[in-house]
Design goal:
Helices cover about 40% and strands about 15% of the residues. With about 300 residues, it is an alpha/beta fold. The protein has one domain: HAD superfamily/HAD-like (Rossmann fold), CATH 3.40.50.1000. Strands 1, 2, 3, 4, 5, 6, 7 and 8 form an eight-stranded mixed beta sheet that branches. Helix 7 (about 145-155) links the parallel strand 2 and strand 3. Helix 4 packs across helix 11 (about 265-275) and helix 5 packs across helix 7 (about 145-155). The two termini are about 30 Å apart.
Length: about 300
């Protein structure tokens, strides 16, 4: 199946072949779709693209970025323990402690428009549009900072986003995380709470992800779909008879030269904590213990 990142300004215009091959979505107001971001909706790790943009603007140094990325790669290769994630999270928070939330949000919007918009997979965007056209709600669910996730959702005209939340006080980051990084089981728990708040029937919902780490989320819904899957998820999807959609046209995910399948989870889990964007009272909607969500 062919697929390509959309060009800037046209993320909702997938190729005809992608639309023809996409899922048929029934009209159902109790149904919704949940999309992972990294390697599913976007080529590579969104938080890494964001961090590169911040480094280019001297928000922090390139040395900090390289050091942090190397650390995440080592953790991913050897396996992460709970203590590793806690230590990584705390070190990442040091990057934004004392920074103004509005400044980082504005930079996030600029960086998305300049360097991230053309990394949206048009095939995945087509799938999201089918749900929207059927009158269903579409949410991003990601370890990425919640307001970065919301920027992506807004630009793609989706319903809203769930993401990792960091604390701020008087518009300034405190250096503390609210809840946990939205990863693995935490994603599924956040979606359960969202479904209860929104009156969704999870048996009628769909979820899309590239990673075996999202098995709890995929197992939660009635229509799980593996998109650009890693080898473990591909094997699991085949065993369970789940649909598989691959928009990479046979090219290795690592071709773009940023953390993707191998280290994307570690980078999202660590940097996301450090760059998580949450301004108290800014986001309307239901407050979740481990995530925040907002309608577009």
């Amino acid at each position: 199946m062919s697929g390509r990142p959309a060009t800037p300004g046209t993320p909702a215009e997938p190729a005809a072949s992608e639309l023809e091959a996409a899922l048929t979505v029934p009209e159902d107001p109790a149904a919704a779709a949940f999309f992972d971001v990294d390697n599913t909706m976007m080529v590579g790790a969104s938080i890494f693209h964001f961090a590169k943009g911040l480094a280019a603007r001297k928000f922090f140094s390139w040395r900090d970025l390289v050091t942090f990325t190397m650390r995440q790669t080592r953790l991913r290769v050897r396996g992460e323990s709970h203590d590793d994630m806690h230590t990584t999270r705390d070190s990442a928070l040091a990057f934004v402690a004392g920074k103004k939330v509005d400044e980082v949000v504005t930079l996030g919007e600029e960086i998305y428009d300049e360097t991230m918009a053309d990394k949206i997979w048009s095939g995945t965007r087509a799938l999201a549009q089918l749900h929207l056209d059927a009158g269903q709600r579409v949410w991003l669910v990601t370890a990425t900072p919640v307001e970065l996730a919301q920027i992506i959702a807004d630009r793609l005209k989706l319903t809203g986003a769930l993401g990792t939340v960091a604390e701020s006080r008087d518009g300034v980051y405190t250096g503390r995380l609210i809840g946990d990084v939205l990863h693995g089981e935490a994603k599924a728990a956040a979606v359960r709470r969202l479904a209860a708040a929104e009156g969704l029937d999870l048996a009628q919902c769909a979820a899309y992800s590239d990673s075996i780490n999202d098995l709890p989320l995929l197992s939660l819904v009635g229509r799980p779909v593996a998109v650009n899957p890693d080898s473990a998820l591909r094997g699991e999807a085949r065993q369970r008879g789940w649909e598989i959609r691959d928009f990479r046209t046979g090219r290795k995910a690592a071709r773009i030269g940023v953390p993707t399948v191998a280290v994307g989870g570690a980078v999202a889990g660590g940097v996301a904590a450090g760059l998580a964007l949450r301004k108290r009272g800014r986001l309307p909607g239901v407050r979740l213990p481990n995530a925040a969500f907002r309608r577009g």
